[in-house]
Amino acid sequence: MSDARNYPYITVRAGGFTLIELLITIVIVGVIAMIGIPAMGDFILNNRIRSQSGDLMLQLTHARSEAMRTVSRVTICPGTSGSGCAGSAWENGWVAFIDTNNIAALDSGETIISVSDALDGNNTLRSAAFPTYISFRHDGSSADISGAPQAGSFALCDSRGFGDDARAIVITVTGRIKVLNANATGSGVSNCGT
Fold first, then answer.
1. Which one, 5, 41, 65, 100, has least CB within 10 Å?
2. Which helix (H) or strand (E) holds 43?
3. SS3 of 92, please?
4. Within 10 A of 64 (CB to CB), how many other CB atoms are there?
5. Which region, left, alpha or beta, applies to residue 60 given φ > 0 means left and ψ of -120 to 50 means alpha?
């Protein structure tokens, strides 16, 4: 058995990094972090606003389906199951219920279909067309409590404001629901407050 002590011309080198290799690695990691962190922030914001617009669309579609299934009026309003309909700040949450007395207000004894929590990320959800409620009738159409057709859009915005990153949730008189970029043609919104 031989070992390095018997052969003086064999050198044993200890493993590890040199100072230069370590500094180069730190510089590369720093550059990647400077590029990647802002991109990760946009990625999170984009996923959040897509998820929130999809959730609203899903709940509106569910409320419309329930109106047709139960042959009754279903109303969605900003608020909670505990507070009922409250204000026009949809971003604080909303509640969908079977509106048996057709007054667009959650009364005791009315069946709650779904409740949504407040939006994350300080996002805003507003609508000039539906400031305090939206209702679906037994035929799936959208109409206010007087029977007049309801059509319009919700504007969903995050910290980036109105533009390509904001979303519009559009509801037609027939009750059809779609999600568009807020600044797209036919979105029905021109800023985050409408």
1. 5
2. helix 19-70
3. helix
4. 26
5. alpha
Bridge partners, residue 135, by sequence: 75
Residue 11 located in a structural domain: no
Question: Looking at the DSSP assignment, which residues form a beta bridge with residue 98?
Answer: 74
Can you give the CATH number for the domain in which 97 is found?
3.55.40.10
Q: What is the pTM of this model?
A: 0.77
Strands 134-136 and 84-85: unpaired
Domain count, the chain: 1
Section 136-147 average pLDDT? 92
* Two tokens, residue 181: 């970029």
- Kindly state whether residue 194 falls inside one of the protein's structural domains: no
pLDDT 10s digits, 103-118: 888 888 889 999 999 9
30 within domain boundaries: yes
Angle at 168 between CA 36 and CA 105, to 5 degrees: 125
Q: Is residue 4 part of a domain?
A: no
Q: Three-class SS of residue 168?
A: strand
Give percent of the chain above pLDDT 70.
91
